[in-house]
Specification:
The protein is α+β, with helices and mostly antiparallel strands. The chain is built from 6 helices and 18 strands. The strands form 3 sheets. Strands 2, 6, 9, 10, 11, 12, 13, 14, 15, 16, 17 and 18 form a 12-stranded mixed β-sheet that branches. A hairpin with a 6-residue loop joins strand 9 and strand 10. The longest helix is centred in the last third of the chain and has 24 residues. About 30% of the residues are buried.
Length: about 375
């Protein structure tokens, strides 16, 4: 494919970088400082706050938005023009580094995006703080190979913003079910004691079930759903809770120097997941409303109102390391220092622990028999 054909297939997207006011190099966002810092001369320049608040968007606004455009390439890659060297960098991220001069690039949010980010929780931990969190995590892993403790020193972290949807809603739910109340009856039984048959009594618990129905209401705020399929949702859920109250109105400056993944989960699909999570809480409310000792909820009919959403970017440090010929991934919540990830197990340590346990059991048995 010729350069002209490539440009036609991947139209260039406007991007920006931020020059250092002291030396002219490209600055990047400094985690925890709320400022842009030059990696060469160390000069810092504050991120100028925007005169607006993070706001929720009515869900019915989506019907007025055009469908998210599909890229003309199978990979969904776009070409970004580097303002530093003029090179074209192919990426489907909102922010990245120029593959030629390493300039920190941030794509301009444009009309091609169906939904643009409303808020961002900026990086709060820098690489050193992330390494400290990882060091604490590795040292607390039972039966981990000793070499795992060296990972935090030898590997490099990659910082990424991951898109998430949040949903708010007011719900009113009518339910039907059954209430179970315990009661006790005296039961007579026969047993053998000292070779003789004797009659005894005991209290036996029974459950009395009665029909139950009612209505419960609940307001939901910031139900969080991952907006990317690049990382398993069940893994991202382990990084919660996120301090969403610390979210700031979106500004591209926060992305400088980090990779920012575009969402590939549509807000309508995210709402399906959000309603599933709401349903779990609502069923718990129904059981509490039924009362009694046991509850059975057979049906729930929920009505939603005041449904709103927003797109928020959340910061994660990623580490992928090789051990025994396999790749293992670790993630660090870049605000709370929560660490989750995969880890290998040391067969030698497990075997040694098993042997030690058997020895201890044998010793206890020996001591008991000596008495």
């Amino acid at each position: 494919m010729s350069p002209d054909e490539q440009n036609a297939a991947n139209p260039a997207t406007a991007s920006r970088s931020y020059p250092c006011q002291a030396c002219g190099a490209t600055v990047e966002f400094a985690p925890g400082a709320d400022a842009l810092r030059c990696p060469y001369c160390g000069h810092e320049q504050a991120v100028t706050a925007v005169p607006r608040q993070v706001r929720e968007h009515r869900f019915d606004e989506l019907t007025a938005l055009p469908a998210k455009p599909l890229s003309s390439t199978a990979e969904g890659v776009r070409s970004y023009v580097c303002p530093g060297c003029g090179a074209h960098t192919e990426s489907d991220d909102l922010s990245a580094h120029c593959q030629f001069c390493a300039t920190a690039l941030v794509a301009e949010p444009d009309a091609a995006e169906r939904v643009t980010p409303e808020a961002v929780v900026p990086f709060g931990l820098d690489r050193n703080a992330a390494r400290e969190a990882l060091s604490g995590w590795t040292s607390s892993r039972w039966f981990a190979p000793s070499r795992l403790k060296q990972v935090s020193e030898a590997e490099t972290f990659r910082g990424s913003y991951l898109p998430h949807w949040t949903y708010d809603a007011q719900t009113v739910s009518g339910y039907r079910g059954q209430r179970g109340d315990y009661y006790y009856v005296t039961e007579t039984y026969t047993t053998t004691e000292n070779g003789e048959s004797v009659t005894r009594t005991r209290q036996v618990r029974r459950t009395r079930w009665s029909p139950a129905s009612g209505t419960v209401g609940r307001g939901f705020d910031d139900v969080l759903v991952a907006g990317t399929t690049h990382v398993a949702a069940e893994q991202l859920d382990k990084l919660t809770p996120w301090p969403l109250e610390e979210a700031k109105p979106f500004q591209p400056e926060y992305l400088a120097g980090f990779r920012t993944v575009r969402y590939d989960v549509e807000p309508e699909d995210g709402l399906v997941t959000a309603k599933e999570r709401m349903a779990e809480v609502i069923r718990s409310d129904c059981r509490a409303d039924i009362g009694g000792d046991e509850q059975q909820v057979t049906s729930v009919d929920t009505r939603y109102s005041g449904l709103t959403f927003k797109l928020v970017l959340l910061p994660v440090w990623f580490l992928t390391y090789l051990y025994a010929g396999r790749s293992w991934q670790v993630m660090v919540n870049a605000r709370t220092a929560e660490v989750i990830g995969e880890r290998p197990y040391s067969k030698g340590k497990i075997a040694a622990a098993a042997v030690a346990a058997l020895v201890l059991v044998a010793l206890i048995v020996f001591l008991v028999m000596q008495k």
